Amino acid sequence: VRLDYWSPTVAVLAGYNRYWSDPYDTPTQANKQTRNDYYSLTGLYDFGPFSVSLAWQRQEVKAAEVPTLDVLTGGLMLPVGKDLARAVLVKRRVQGSDNDAWGFMVGYDHFFTPQTAVYVRAGVVVNQSDAGQTYAAIPLEDRDDTPQDLAVGVYHHF
Prior knowledge:
Elements: E1 2-6, E2 10-20, E3 35-46, E4 51-61, E5 69-80, E6 83-94, E7 101-111, E8 116-127, E9 148-156
Antiparallel strand pairs: 1-2, 2-3, 3-4, 4-5, 5-6, 6-7, 7-8, 8-9
């Protein structure tokens, strides 16, 4: 289920999704499936000289001893002439564990045409002692590593 509201300056999106795991066997039950509930809420606001976004996501796995996962994301986009600067902050929280993480990314897009740009992005993920979140598929040596990434590229919107 998804509900959206759009105006020239505001967007609000709310969603709920229920899905079931692939069947698996336990010592007491064959072909067991686990229910997963996924909730999301996103808001975007265009102030004119800049725009902001805020998103919340929750995943609840209906199984014993599986913690609820919450992710909160805030973003900012700021036009710089015909270019675009952007930043995002993400907080991941797993209830009842040392499996939390947060991340930060900054970026800049330089447009050659309205459809074509070159970009640079720098990001980092800071993991708690038992967290193993990666960034840009960077392999981790230990679960509490702090992966960092610098990306440069080109994109074109057709």
